[in-house]
Amino acid sequence: MYRAKSVEGLSRKSQELYLTVFCTRYLDLFLPHRHWTLLVAYNTLMKVFFVAASATIVAYFHRMPWRATYQESHDSFRHLLFLVLPSLALGFVLAGEWALLEVLYTFSIVLESVAILPQLVLLQRERNVENLTANVVFALGIYRGFYIFNWAYRYLAEGHVTEPVVWVFGIVQTLVYADFFYYYYAAAKRGAQLVLPQ
Question: Which run of H or E residues covers position 55?
Answer without folding.
Answer: helix 38-60
